[in-house]
Amino acid sequence: MRQPLHERIRSDFEARILSGELAPGDRIPIEQDLMQHYGCARMTVNKALSALLSAGLIDRRKRAGTFVARPRMHSMVLDVPDLPSQIRERGQVYAYFPIGHRLRPPAPSRDDEMRLAGGGDLFELEGLHLADDIPLALEYRLISVLAVPDIGDATDIEAISPGSWLLKHVPWTEAETRISALEATAEEARLLRIPQRSACLCVERRTWRGSDRITYVRQVFVGNSYDLVARFGATR
Amino acid sequence: MRQPLHERIRSDFEARILSGELAPGDRIPIEQDLMQHYGCARMTVNKALSALLSAGLIDRRKRAGTFVARPRMHSMVLDVPDLPSQIRERGQVYAYFPIGHRLRPPAPSRDDEMRLAGGGDLFELEGLHLADDIPLALEYRLISVLAVPDIGDATDIEAISPGSWLLKHVPWTEAETRISALEATAEEARLLRIPQRSACLCVERRTWRGSDRITYVRQVFVGNSYDLVARFGATR
DNA sequence: TCGCGATTAATGTATAGACAAATCTACCAT
DNA sequence: ATGGTAGATTTGTCTATACATTAATCGCGA
């Protein structure tokens, strides 16, 4: 059996749905008919249809039947590899240039900092990401010391890049990313070696591990030398 | 049975993996032990573990066993609702202002246009997305007439918004989105009623249906009044 | 006609068992 | 030591069956 039967059934319908032969709202035969058609047990058909269901390609209602789902277009998979590997993939040399770091308490007036710190202190750092020695992005990062206690004896955190270091030590389970455009401030422009008020892509990210906040990061990319690419397959 | 057993088993391990209690590489008990532990049949355990497998949380190898997967940090789910609904969600009034449209052959010198057209003509259109009558984004779009034949008798395409219209008529199966920052040209600045060279967020998207190209769209957003938000959770 | 309860058709969950496929382990012959 | 082969273990697939759950529908009575 080079291809499992349930997989064949699944891909049959996937193909018919994606090609448009089966349009949204169309009825899909009931499991009884499908087991007749494929000459197999109901559990096999069920496994195939369950996969299509969790892929969001079909809707199923008891008593009513199975239908091709209406496409919900509102989510796609964004490919956000970490910066070093992304730069290396483009055949460039990656380097991180640390500007500074310090341990400090959160500012009582900043709600977000207080929540991130969660009663502990914050590790604040700033640095430049370089591709072939040319500044690509400016990174400002806050790390909750409570969530990442070994940050104190981390001498290597700025040797690679803070993002990569964190991911290796404290994988996150949830993240929120905000992407916007802004004009570089004088300071940002100086560090990135671009004209003042140049258009930059700003990526802000907050990450959690379970219910604990881990880090906040803000990366300002040189506008014309970076873009994010997202690819989409079928829903979800 | 308000919660199916296989779902309970699945979420048990999901929680233990996401909390870090089970670290990448850790062994998960074999199905025999799990059916003992939960007092159920092997198929039930198998269903739970299959779900975790397809969610990418575990790896399974015959004879070797089941292990917590190493997190692949390089992709997250980007929420890209279509513009009208996104604007309405913010409590603003959405409107589309058409600037112009025409039917034309693809430019022979433009490879991308030729591939998009696929031997037919292109429907080109331009318009403004307004939130509370304030320009939010400028949209330039090319549609393959071959892929969307009913575009000729589409009188309503500019009544709502081209994106929404297309999605209703020709659901896509694949898309690629590119996000970058740029400075508004004089023309863009005039239409968006912002100063020249203001920072803007540029979203370009190509969509396919199967192997046929459907449309190319380029949206230029006013930098400070829009941002994309991507959320990543576990599972999917 | 309008509700309301019973029927029933569909999916959802679970069982127990069988065999296939992969691959790790141990042993055996060279 | 080396290489190959024969188990043994674990997952992968599939069957046949049973009962639970949901909701569309039908029939009945007001």
UniProtKB/TrEMBL annotation, chains A, B:
One of its GO terms (molecular function) is DNA binding. The keyword Iron does not apply. It comes from the Bacteria. Residues 3-71 form the HTH gntR-type domain. GO terms for biological process: L-histidine metabolic process; negative regulation of DNA-templated transcription. Keywords: DNA-binding, Transcription, Transcription regulation. InterPro entries: Bact_HTH_transcr_reg, Chorismate_lyase_/UTRA_dom_sf, His_ut_repres, Tscrpt_reg_HTH_GntR, UTRA, WH-like_DNA-bd_sf, WH_DNA-bd_sf. The keyword Lipid biosynthesis does not apply. Pfam families: GntR (PF00392), UTRA (PF07702). PANTHER family: MANNOSYL-D-GLYCERATE TRANSPORT/METABOLISM SYSTEM REPRESSOR MNGR-RELATED (PTHR44846), TRANSCRIPTIONAL REGULATOR PHNF-RELATED (PTHR44846:SF16). This is Histidine utilization repressor. It comes from Sphingomonas populi. The lineage of its organism: Bacteria, Pseudomonadati, Pseudomonadota, Alphaproteobacteria, Sphingomonadales. The gene is hutC.
